[in-house]
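From the methods appendix. Each design record in this collection lists the tokenized structure first, followed by the designed amino acid sequence. Records were kept in a plain field format so they could be parsed without special tools. The example shown here is representative of the layout used throughout.

RECORD:
FOLD TOKENS (309 positions):
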């Protein structure tokens, strides 16, 4: 896979079809990868593709939109790109989308419960297994996937200029949200308040989210000031509930927000709940069709909720 990606990137850059490729590079440990920006054909050797390439690279499109951009797109990345196109944050002809049918990415926190990460020197993929050295320790990939990847409905990119890998079936359903919905409203409030209480409002979840690209976020606006600088339960609630509303019909369940959180605050479920509501109320799935109007900017005088509508 990585050889094919490098070859495509090299020809796109050397033929001047793109100015930059948004890709994955090696991180500081064998179980880390990082987003990289490749601007020269001679630098494509820095590109990698492994079970730790979970970053949703669509996050970097708005900042690079004056360039012609090549991007490695997993299923979730492609849906985020579709949202950016729907919201006119980039023109389609400035993008070259190298789709990769995604086998699901490995959650290092889960892997760390199976092996001592401090001793790991090398990690390879062999079929459906992850092989860890030293010790030739074999772990089934599906046992250590991120929750977002276990529940992924579209592992095959929905939008691409070329596609690498076999098309894969996704999983359509919300068992995680349904479990939470069984709680009474009191229990549900406590459930989320326990999570809000952990948050230090560092904004890493927002900064890593491809759908959060506003230059000024309501959470930092001073006029009017919606959220104070104090880290209180009320302010945390305001931030997370408002952010979640802003993501209704715009979240693709990539899980980046939860992965970025230094305190491992499990907020993913809140966004999944919004996703389920958008699906049930409006039969709307975010990021499938760039030509479709965004869910919450669509208005009709025939709206059944309007008086006389
Ligand atoms: S959410 Fe889906 S497309 Fe995204 S990394 Fe996981 S399996 Fe791949
Ligand atoms: S990343 Fe975690 S701690 Fe930081 S604002 Fe988001 S939920 Fe709160
Ligand atoms: S809210 Fe989280 S899961 Fe949804 S698109 Fe943003 S980073 Fe991905």
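DESIGN:
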């Amino acid at each position: 896979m990585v050889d094919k990606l490098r070859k495509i990137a090299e020809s796109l850059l050397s033929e001047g079809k793109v100015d930059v490729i948004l890709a994955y590079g090696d991180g500081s440990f064998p179980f880390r990868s990082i987003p990289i920006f490749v601007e020269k054909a001679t630098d494509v050797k820095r590109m990698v593709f492994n079970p730790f390439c979970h970053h949703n690279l669509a996050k970097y499109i708005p900042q690079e939109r004056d360039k012609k951009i090549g991007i490695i797109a997993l299923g979730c990345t492609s849906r985020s790109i579709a949202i950016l196109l729907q919201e006119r944050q980039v023109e389609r002809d400035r993008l070259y989308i190298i789709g990769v049918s995604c086998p699901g990415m490995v959650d290092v926190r889960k892997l760390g419960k199976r092996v001592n990460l401090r001793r790991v020197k090398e990690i390879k993929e062999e079929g459906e297994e992850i092989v860890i050295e030293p010790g030739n320790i074999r772990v089934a990939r599906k046992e250590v996937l991120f929750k977002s990847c276990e529940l992924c409905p579209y592992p095959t990119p929905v939008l691409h200029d070329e596609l690498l890998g076999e098309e894969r079936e996704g999983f359509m359903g919300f068992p995680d949200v349904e479990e939470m919905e069984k709680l009474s409203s009191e229990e549900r409030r406590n459930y989320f308040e326990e999570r809000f209480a952990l948050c230090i409002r560092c904004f890493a979840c927002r900064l890593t989210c491809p759908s959060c690209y506003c230059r000024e976020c309501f959470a930092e606006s001073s006029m009017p000031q919606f959220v104070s600088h104090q880290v209180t339960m009320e302010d945390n609630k305001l931030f997370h509930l408002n952010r979640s509303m802003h993501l209704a019909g715009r979240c693709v369940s990539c899980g980046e927000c939860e992965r970025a959180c230094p305190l491992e605050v499990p907020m993913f479920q809140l966004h999944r709940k919004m996703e389920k509501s958008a699906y049930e109320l409006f039969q709307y799935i975010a990021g499938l069709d760039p030509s479709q109007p965004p869910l919450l900017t669509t208005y009709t005088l025939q709206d059944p909720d309007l008086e006389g509508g």
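APPENDIX NOTE: The pocket of iron/sulfur cluster (ligand 2) is lined by residues 199-205, 260-261, 263, 265, 267 (CB under 6 Å).
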